[in-house]
Amino acid sequence: HSANNNGAHSDSQAPPTVNTLLWIGGLFDTLAHVRYPFTLASGLPPPWTLAQLSLSSAGRAWGVSSLDSDVADLANAIAYFRGLRPGGRIVLMGHSTGCQDALHYLSSASAGNDRPMVDGIILQAPVSDREALVNQIGAEAVERANAAALAMREQGREGDCIPMALLKPLQWDLGITASRWLSLASLGGEDDMFSSDLKDTRLEETFGRIPKNMHVLLLSSGADEYVSKHVDVPAMLKRWAGFAERAGARVHKSSTNQVPGATHDLATVPDSVVRELIDRVVGFL
């Protein structure tokens, strides 16, 4: 029994429900590498809490991992929080390549349909790794690496790492398997979800497979340094939202408006820009 403030007694009540925002970083990210989640966590209303996930692909391990591996990690984490906080809502928030993880979690096939469901997803700074690579090192260098990775796959060596010499223009000191490189850098690869030149059939496989009534928020950065200058981002956001809505998803009304002044990870932006992002997240939750 517990006593109320007026002295009356009542039966003990269950602890209050706690909702969880699960934040997933991008390539090379480790715990606390991206700073805005700390500000976001302090700005969430009760009963929401934020948890950063460190997947097995975190840091430099992404080169020998895959979206399917990330999804398996996510399923374990979601099952854990479902058990820890029964009755609470869970929303996935992907940052950068973490957006691919969140979308793949909802759109890819689940063996045995045993993947625990979430209540919504937020895609913050969804960008095309393929187009970003072309901008960074040029189309010719990307195609050379693609050709080498394709040859390795045809030889049954897709699990082997591509030659380090092909990564020299990127100055990346890590191993990347042929399969992961092709996933990120080839047209229609498994990671290739947010490129501006994707056909409707590809978007149907991703946004078009979001479950009915799933809540979705898109948070595209208005000054994202990894987005090609030629991309009509507002039109692309409307296209993504259209596929999700036709699948029955509930896309938040602010999703087709970019976050003004926001860079990719909001590392050097004014506090007002971070506040705008937090306000949108809180409004969505």
Automatic annotation (TrEMBL):
Q: Which Pfam families does the UniProt entry name for this protein?
A: DUF1749
Classification via Gene3D superfamilies: alpha/beta hydrolase (3.40.50.1820)
InterPro entries assigned to the protein according to its UniProt record, in alphabetical order = AB_hydrolase_fold, SidJ
Q: Which residues, if any, are the signal sequence?
A: none
Show the PANTHER family listed in the entry.
DUF1749-DOMAIN-CONTAINING PROTEIN (PTHR31591:SF7), UPF0613 PROTEIN PB24D3.06C (PTHR31591)
What is the recorded name of this protein? DUF1749-domain-containing protein
Q: What is the lineage of its organism?
A: Eukaryota, Fungi, Dikarya, Ascomycota, Pezizomycotina
